[in-house]
Each structure stands twice: as structure tokens, then as C-alpha cells.
Amino acid sequence: MDPVVIAGRTPILLVADHASNIVPDDIALDIDPALLDEHVAIDIGTDALTRRLAELLDASAVIAGVSRLVLDLNREPDAAGLIPESSDGRTIPGNSGLSLEVREARLRRFHIPYHDAITAMIERVQPRLLVAMHSFTPSLLTRPELTRPWPVGILYNEDERAARPMIAALRGQGMHVGDNEPYSGRELNYTMNRHAEGRGLPYINIEVRQDLLETAEDIEGWAQRLADAVSATAATLA
């Protein structure tokens, strides 16, 4: 359940908040186990994609080791959805009515070590670029009328230094790129707000559609495309 830490040699740091669907044996969510393979539990494909991208870029990485159904690492410690009682219409009974003591215990066990690991890697690597890796579902159960046509989206909050060249690099590859889609980085950006915007570090928050990350060939193709675009973006920041 501890985050996976990968050491690279280039000044680029990758982070993957939702790469795991692991639930510790001593935490009972009381859900159908099949739910752990769905988007509410894990950003599908991001573990393999982040590892391969780290190889191609010779970059460092911090990869989450626990499911966001246990605790969402990309949320503020006091956020209402930190320990979700439901997600995209799926109820998580084991998270209902938790005591303050239990919530604080999960913070200490998962949230604090993960973000401490990112802080330690920033201090070690001194990155000139942070890259957050996520994936998104083609449609939401609770909002089926919303179309999500983008194969990839780039999210950001106030700092657009890296987002703009990254969007341009991906569009230069002929891609339809979501600009703060399918989510807005001005609303869902805790990890990057804390570790990048809070330090004045350029960053990009990448969202790849999960149905495009189903096979090893998919992962390799996206890793190659993203490596080229991230490298081009990093060069603009040198």
C-alpha cells in the first residue's frame, strides 16, 4: 500500500494519484469486488503507462499504492469526498458514517505518506516539470448524456506555462486534445496545486481516455506519444 517510488536521472517527476485498486485487508468497503476494476476505484491503465513513460523519459515517479475508494489522494485533507461514500452512482457502504478517528487514521496511513513521498522526490530531483498521470471513463453512469470525445485532455489551474506547449505538442501529433476537459484543473487539482503551483513549478495534468489503454500495445503507443510531447514541453522550460 505504500507508494511506488522510481528514481530517474532527468529533471522530470511523474505522479499517479489513482493508479492502484488495492484495498487493505483490514478495511471493509462492503462492495462487490468487481467494482475494484472499474473507474470509480482506479484510473485504469495509469500504473503501466506511468512506469513506461518513466522509462522512456528516464524520469522519476511516485505511484499511488491504494485505491481512491479507500482515500482519494488528489483531494484536500478536509474535502467532503476524501473518503467517498459514493462515486458515479455507486454506493460505498463501508465508508458511510466513519468516525473522525477513523478518517484521521486513514489520512496518516495513506494521504500523508504519499504526499511526503512526492515532497521528498521534489527535493531530491529538483524537477523543472511535474507531470500528473490520470485516465478517465468515456462516459459517466450518472451523466450518460455528456459526451467525452477527447482521447486525451490536459488540465491546469492558474499556471499554464507547461499546459500550453503540451496541448500544442499533442495537437501537432494530430490529436483532439481537451483543454481543461473532461475535468477542469481549476476544480480538481489538489496534488498539483500543492506540489507544483504551491512551489512555482511548471506542471501538466494528463488525462487519457481509459478505453484507449486496454492492451500492452495501447500502453506502448500512448507512452511513446506522451514521451515525445513531454520532452518537447520540457524543452520550452529549459
Automatic annotation (TrEMBL):
Domain of life: Bacteria
InterPro entries assigned: N-FG_amidohydro, UCP029730
Record-given protein name: N-formylglutamate amidohydrolase
Originating organism: Sphingoaurantiacus capsulatus
